[in-house]
Amino acid sequence: MNLELKKAIDQISKDKGLDRDMLIDTLEDAVRTSVLRRFSEDMDVEVTYNDDTGDIEVYQFKIVVEDDDVANEDTQIALADAREHDPSVQLDDEMGFRVKVEDLGRIAAQSAKQVIIQRMRDAEQEIIYEEYKDRVGEIVSGIIQRRDKGGWVVNLGRTEALLPKEEQIPREHYKRGDRVQALIIEVRKEGRGPQVVISRAHRDYMAALFRREVPEVDDGVVQIMGVARDPGSRAKVAVLSRERDVDPVGACVGVRGSRIQNIVQELRGERIDIVVWSPEIAAYARNALAPAVISRIVVDESENLLEVTVPDDQLTNAIGRKGQNVKLAAKLLGWKIDIFSESRYNEANAVGRGLEQVASVAEISVEQLVAAGYNTLDSLRDASDEELADRLALSAPRIAELRAAVNFLSPVVEGAKQEGTEESAEEAGE
Fold it and tell me: 349 pLDDT band (50/70/90 cuts)?
């Protein structure tokens, strides 16, 4: 009895989490391969593991042929020789002969061992892949193992994961033995085994942290509608409540900020703005650009563009440090955002209105004026009659009417410009 082999199979199955029947099949295939390599590829061999005794039984099968018709001794046996083993045997019968496993030799045994180890490794890797591929989007915890050319290798227990450089929070530093949390973002098959890729910078990591820390998010009462991150610095999270009585912002912040603080701590101080989502893009934009106060929003759906006007003293808040606030808001909304101060808006509007009136007098479109290079009243005033006639195809009477309109409107536009400049100067002085 080979109880050691039986114990080994049981132990490997338990320690590695591998199916026992699969291990036995692998063992039988490995022994069969070694037998064929040792003797002949032509042999008809059957390998059976006896689970009761722990023994491996190998049988070679041959066809009984006429004494003079033996063409291949690996697959055929002469009738006379066969009857020495079984007197009742007939032609074309199949006879089985037991092969002693120990006769395989040391090389064959080593070969069998290598096949078994490789099959076990493949099976283990497949199990790990199947386990982790369904865990994409899940937070895992592991120990920093070593630095790899692609990033840090993190020990997750059952396997290792890669935390690439681009998926790390900037200015975060790690050393061997540090415990780190991250989000599984990809599991791919590679030659060396399954590669689990994790991230701390991914926007979904923040969403997963909210699901973990905020019960209302986890059970779906509060829904996260979008996340925009500048990892390690600032983020905006859009939320929506499915129940009237539940304040989505309050639920995410928690009592005295306890819930949001846990997330901020995990992200090493990353500032988080919680924004109320709205189906109306203008209302959504107002919330997303907070803490800035918004005067007006013009929506251009054809260009997916928002033109936002803010009081002059709110321009810095709206744009944010290094443009961070408006960039995150644009990313959250999925729209382009142009921000103007009130004075700049009024100035542009005055010029625009002036051009419209001049174009009306000349009976041409504003687009024609701009296309000809005249986008201000000054440019029209400075142009010669010949130039206007050539570029705009205007008659002398029309040119005269255009000039009269320009001369009349220029002081009005200049006054608006001056007013805006004075307001900006006053606010700067304050």
Answer: low
